[in-house]
Specification:
Blueprint lengths: L1 H6 L1 E4 L2 E4 L13 H17 L11 H20 L4 H27 L5 H29 L3
Antiparallel strand pairs: 1-2
Helix pairs in contact: 2-3, 2-5, 3-4, 4-5
Protein backbone atom coordinates (compact mmCIF):
# COMPACT_ATOMS: atom_id res chain seq x y z
CA UNK A 1 0.00 0.00 0.00
CA UNK A 2 2.80 2.44 0.92
CA UNK A 3 4.54 1.75 -2.37
CA UNK A 4 1.32 2.47 -4.23
CA UNK A 5 1.03 5.79 -2.43
CA UNK A 6 4.65 6.65 -3.18
CA UNK A 7 4.18 5.92 -6.87
CA UNK A 8 0.89 7.72 -7.24
CA UNK A 9 0.75 10.83 -9.40
CA UNK A 10 -0.54 14.22 -8.24
CA UNK A 11 -1.96 16.78 -10.59
CA UNK A 12 -0.40 20.12 -9.70
CA UNK A 13 -1.50 23.22 -11.56
CA UNK A 14 -2.77 21.11 -14.42
CA UNK A 15 0.48 19.20 -14.88
CA UNK A 16 1.27 15.75 -13.52
CA UNK A 17 4.26 15.51 -11.25
CA UNK A 18 5.37 12.56 -9.18
CA UNK A 19 5.44 12.89 -5.41
CA UNK A 20 9.21 12.41 -5.50
CA UNK A 21 9.62 15.63 -7.52
CA UNK A 22 7.85 17.80 -4.95
CA UNK A 23 10.12 20.51 -3.56
CA UNK A 24 8.90 22.00 -0.30
CA UNK A 25 11.39 24.88 -0.64
CA UNK A 26 9.70 26.10 -3.83
CA UNK A 27 6.50 28.05 -3.39
CA UNK A 28 5.08 31.47 -4.20
CA UNK A 29 7.89 33.17 -2.24
CA UNK A 30 10.36 32.00 -4.88
CA UNK A 31 8.48 33.77 -7.69
CA UNK A 32 10.17 36.91 -8.98
CA UNK A 33 6.73 38.52 -9.43
CA UNK A 34 5.94 37.95 -5.74
CA UNK A 35 9.34 39.28 -4.62
CA UNK A 36 8.92 42.48 -6.63
CA UNK A 37 5.34 42.86 -5.41
CA UNK A 38 6.62 42.56 -1.87
CA UNK A 39 9.05 45.40 -2.57
CA UNK A 40 6.16 47.57 -3.77
CA UNK A 41 4.17 46.73 -0.64
CA UNK A 42 7.09 47.60 1.62
CA UNK A 43 7.75 50.82 -0.29
CA UNK A 44 4.19 52.01 0.36
CA UNK A 45 4.32 51.02 4.02
CA UNK A 46 7.72 52.65 4.59
CA UNK A 47 7.76 55.60 2.19
CA UNK A 48 4.17 56.68 1.54
CA UNK A 49 1.89 55.80 4.45
CA UNK A 50 4.07 57.54 7.08
CA UNK A 51 3.80 60.77 5.07
CA UNK A 52 0.00 60.83 5.05
CA UNK A 53 -1.70 63.38 7.30
CA UNK A 54 -3.85 62.16 10.19
CA UNK A 55 -7.06 63.14 8.38
CA UNK A 56 -6.28 60.44 5.78
CA UNK A 57 -6.11 57.71 8.44
CA UNK A 58 -9.47 56.20 7.47
CA UNK A 59 -9.46 57.07 3.80
CA UNK A 60 -6.37 56.98 1.59
CA UNK A 61 -4.34 55.22 4.27
CA UNK A 62 -6.76 52.28 4.39
CA UNK A 63 -7.08 52.13 0.60
CA UNK A 64 -3.31 52.00 0.16
CA UNK A 65 -2.93 49.31 2.83
CA UNK A 66 -5.59 47.10 1.26
CA UNK A 67 -4.19 47.44 -2.26
CA UNK A 68 -0.59 46.88 -1.13
CA UNK A 69 -1.48 43.73 0.79
CA UNK A 70 -3.67 42.54 -2.08
CA UNK A 71 -0.77 42.39 -4.52
CA UNK A 72 1.23 39.71 -2.72
CA UNK A 73 -1.82 37.98 -1.24
CA UNK A 74 -3.39 37.38 -4.65
CA UNK A 75 -0.17 36.06 -6.12
CA UNK A 76 0.15 33.61 -3.24
CA UNK A 77 -3.49 32.57 -3.48
CA UNK A 78 -3.25 32.12 -7.24
CA UNK A 79 -0.12 30.01 -6.82
CA UNK A 80 -2.00 27.71 -4.48
CA UNK A 81 -4.89 27.12 -6.88
CA UNK A 82 -5.31 23.80 -8.60
CA UNK A 83 -5.92 24.94 -12.17
CA UNK A 84 -3.93 27.37 -14.28
CA UNK A 85 -6.96 29.52 -15.13
CA UNK A 86 -7.80 30.03 -11.45
CA UNK A 87 -4.23 31.15 -10.79
CA UNK A 88 -4.27 33.53 -13.75
CA UNK A 89 -7.40 35.21 -12.43
CA UNK A 90 -5.71 35.91 -9.08
CA UNK A 91 -2.59 37.21 -10.82
CA UNK A 92 -4.80 39.59 -12.81
CA UNK A 93 -6.39 40.84 -9.59
CA UNK A 94 -2.88 41.45 -8.28
CA UNK A 95 -2.09 43.45 -11.40
CA UNK A 96 -5.24 45.51 -10.83
CA UNK A 97 -4.05 46.30 -7.32
CA UNK A 98 -0.74 47.52 -8.77
CA UNK A 99 -2.63 49.95 -10.98
CA UNK A 100 -4.72 51.04 -8.01
CA UNK A 101 -1.56 51.79 -6.04
CA UNK A 102 -0.18 53.81 -8.92
CA UNK A 103 -3.32 55.95 -8.83
CA UNK A 104 -3.05 56.36 -5.05
CA UNK A 105 0.58 57.38 -5.42
CA UNK A 106 -0.33 60.01 -8.01
CA UNK A 107 -3.10 61.25 -5.69
CA UNK A 108 -0.59 61.52 -2.85
CA UNK A 109 1.66 63.59 -5.09
CA UNK A 110 -1.23 65.77 -6.27
CA UNK A 111 -2.16 66.52 -2.66
CA UNK A 112 1.47 67.23 -1.72
CA UNK A 113 1.73 64.27 0.65
CA UNK A 114 4.79 62.93 -1.22
CA UNK A 115 7.44 64.68 -3.28
CA UNK A 116 8.53 64.03 -6.87
CA UNK A 117 11.36 61.76 -5.73
CA UNK A 118 8.96 59.42 -3.90
CA UNK A 119 6.53 59.56 -6.83
CA UNK A 120 9.23 58.62 -9.34
CA UNK A 121 10.63 55.84 -7.16
CA UNK A 122 7.17 54.36 -6.61
CA UNK A 123 6.20 54.56 -10.27
CA UNK A 124 9.45 52.85 -11.23
CA UNK A 125 8.89 50.02 -8.73
CA UNK A 126 5.30 49.58 -9.90
CA UNK A 127 6.23 49.52 -13.61
CA UNK A 128 9.04 47.00 -13.06
CA UNK A 129 6.70 44.81 -11.01
CA UNK A 130 3.93 45.08 -13.60
CA UNK A 131 6.29 43.94 -16.38
CA UNK A 132 7.41 40.95 -14.32
CA UNK A 133 3.86 40.04 -13.31
CA UNK A 134 2.67 40.29 -16.93
CA UNK A 135 5.51 37.98 -17.92
CA UNK A 136 4.47 35.48 -15.26
CA UNK A 137 0.84 35.63 -16.39
CA UNK A 138 1.97 34.95 -19.97
CA UNK A 139 4.16 32.07 -18.76
CA UNK A 140 1.27 30.47 -16.86
CA UNK A 141 -1.09 31.01 -19.81
CA UNK A 142 1.41 29.27 -22.12
CA UNK A 143 1.65 26.34 -19.69
CA UNK A 144 -2.14 26.14 -19.63
CA UNK A 145 -2.21 25.99 -23.44
CA UNK A 146 0.52 23.32 -23.44
CA UNK A 147 3.19 25.48 -25.06
Amino acid sequence: MKKQLDNRKLELSGEEESVAKYNSDKDFTTLEAWKKSRSVKLFFYEEVIPRLPIEEKFNLNVQIRKAAISITANISEGYGRYHYQEGIQFYRISRGSLYELKDHLISCFDMNFVNKEVLDKGKSLIEDTKITLNGYINFVRARKEGK
